[in-house]
Specification:
97 residues
Length: 97
C-alpha cells in the first residue's frame, strides 16, 4: 500500500513539474512571437513585452512556474527586448522601464 501511495505521489510531482516546464515554453514562444511579428508601433510592442514579463512574474509568485534558470533566461530576454526598444525610441534619453 505504501509503495502504491509513493508511486502516485511521485507521478503527481512529475506531472506538475512537466506542466511548469510547458508553461515556461509557452511564455518563450509568446515572447518570440511578439518580437518576430514586428509591430508597427514600438510603444505597443514594449507594452506587450512588459505585460508578458509581469505575467511570468505573477505566475512565479502563484507557484505556477519554477524559479529556475529557464525563468531567469525568459526574464532576461524580455528585459533585453524592452531595453532595445527604449534605446531605439529615445537614444541617450533613458526611457522608463
Amino acid at each position: 500500500m505504501g509503495a502504491l501511495l509513493w508511486s502516485a505521489f511521485s507521478a503527481l510531482r512529475a506531472a506538475r513539474r512537466q506542466a511548469r516546464r510547458s508553461r515556461i515554453e509557452i511564455h518563450y514562444a509568446q515572447a518570440r512571437r511578439l518580437v518576430t511579428e514586428g509591430h508597427a508601433d514600438p510603444k505597443t510592442l514594449r507594452a506587450e513585452l512588459v505585460a508578458a514579463r509581469d505575467k511570468a512574474l505573477a505566475e512565479l509568485i502563484d507557484e505556477q512556474l519554477d524559479a529556475n534558470e529557464a525563468f531567469v533566461i525568459l526574464q532576461d530576454y524580455l528585459t533585453a527586448q524592452i531595453a532595445e526598444i527604449d534605446a531605439v525610441r529615445a537614444p541617450g534619453a533613458g526611457a522608463p522601464a
